[in-house]
Amino acid sequence: MTTTTGRQGIDGITRWLLLVAGLIFLMVLVGGFTRLSRAGLSIVEWDVVTGVVPPIGVDAWEESFAAYRQTPEYRLVNRGMTLAEYQEIFYIEWAHRLIGRIAGLAVVVPLLWMLWRRRMTLRRSLPYWGVAALFGVQGAIGWAMVSSGLQDRPSVSEVRLTVHLLTAVGLLALVSWMAMNRMGVAGQPATPKIRAVAKWLLVALVIQLAFGGMMAGLKAGHVSNTWPLMFGTLIPAEALANAGSVWAAVTGPVGVHFIHRWFAFVVAGLALVLAGAIYRQPGSSPLLRKTAGWLTVVVAVQIVLGIAVVILGVPKWLALTHQGLGVALFVIALVVVHATRVSRVEEVAVA
User: Fold this and answer.
1) Quick one: how far is CA 164 from the chain centroid?
2) Pick from 185, 219, 240: which residue ends a domain?
3) What is the pTM assigned to this prediction?
4) pLDDT given for residue 226 in this prediction
5) What contacts 105, CB < 8 A, 6 or more positions away?
6) Are 335 and 291 in contact (CB under 8 A)?
7) Which of 23, 151, 205, 341 is deepest in the core (most CB within 10 A)?
8) 2 falls in which pLDDT band (50, 70, 90)?
9) Whole-number CA gyration radius for the chain
10) How far is it, in rounded angstroms, from Cα 328 to Cα 264?
11) Mean pLDDT of 7-28
């Protein structure tokens, strides 16, 4: 396969897409901080428009706090919290929602402007409107997640939290892929094996991110603070057996923790196989070699971070770094998949 390039470079639309991708990444990070701070249930309503402005004045804050005091989280976890303490977690969740709104507007407003100025045709704008629609879906999933923790439990559903995370990652992947398409590189020399392993690595990372979401929702990082042993053994068979069923075992805190800590080495193995295949292939491009190198380094750092998070008892900033690096690793793998796709000339619209 030969390297074919279309119109290369970073034009205005590409920079716009990269900005949106950066905002999505920031949204994921702030979402992780929100979860680690137990702030996600502090706002008990979903006001898309009026929710942009936080409560103003003592009466408004008292009304918001009174609504929070009716939630299971306040009654079972935060009983006795002061108004000042409530304001701290409120602003964290408010910031998370605000960034989501800004990211959505960062898609819609420039898109409307380009249509108005005829910088883009309506037909060519349809994929970008699809991105805007997905932001709306992501917001709805986020509210469904929050609402699951406002009725009978002091925490959100771990399944809904995982869906919320994976939807954000999928949105990041879509926007990043669109940006890479516009950069004009049609394909780097790659064997079918390299392309296949790259795709399997991406699938493995999605699975690992899903179990990471379940870890967060179940607070399973606190199940064991030792590594490589759990409860004094490599395989906590007794703890898994006590779950009652195979499904309960693999979706409960112990099973999710066990799978997440060891599936990381499946990811590492695929990354090493991919890097080795790229470096052994004659004529591998500098882009692929450099990306493969970063891939192996980031996987190694990510595993070390994961072990440290467990041993140190899930410190907030270390856990947040672990989450952010996991998403970054997914993006790096996405770059490899894009770079090794079957060569074809991409038609790139002029902005």
Assistant:
1) 8
2) 185
3) 0.90
4) 95
5) none
6) yes
7) 205
8) very low
9) 22
10) 15
11) 88
Which domain, by its residues, includes 132?
1-185
Q: Are residues 336 and 193 in the same domain?
A: yes
What the block records as the tokens of 114 is 């380009």
Q: Band the pLDDT of 348: cuts 50, 70, 90.
A: very low
Asked whether residue 12 falls in the same domain as residue 129, the answer is yes
pLDDT score at 255: 94
Q: Per residue in 98-126, is it b (16+ CB within 10 Å) or e — as a string? A: bbbbebbebbeebbeebbeeebbeeeebe
* 166 and 288 inside one domain: no
> Can you tell me the distance from the alpha carbon of 177 to that of 171, in angstroms, rounded to the nearest whole number?
10
Structure tokens at 27: 């949204």
> Which amino acid, 165?
L
Residues 282-315, buried b or exposed e (16+ Cβ, 10 A)?
Answer: eebbeebeebbebbeebbeebbebbebbbeeebe
Alpha-carbon gap, residue 112 to 125, rounded angstroms: 9
Q: With 50 as the cut, is the pLDDT of residue 225 above it?
A: yes
Q: Which of 137, 160, 185 is the last residue of a domain?
A: 185
Alpha-carbon distance of 263 to 302, in angstroms, equals 12
Three-state SS at 46: coil
* 3 state SS of 3: coil
d(CA 257, CA 218): 9
Both 216 and 338 in a single domain?
Answer: yes
Read off the tokens for 234: 């490599």
Measured CA to CA in angstroms, residue 327 lies from 26, 29, 176, 212 at distances of 11, 9, 12, 11
The two tokens of residue 151 are 């009725």
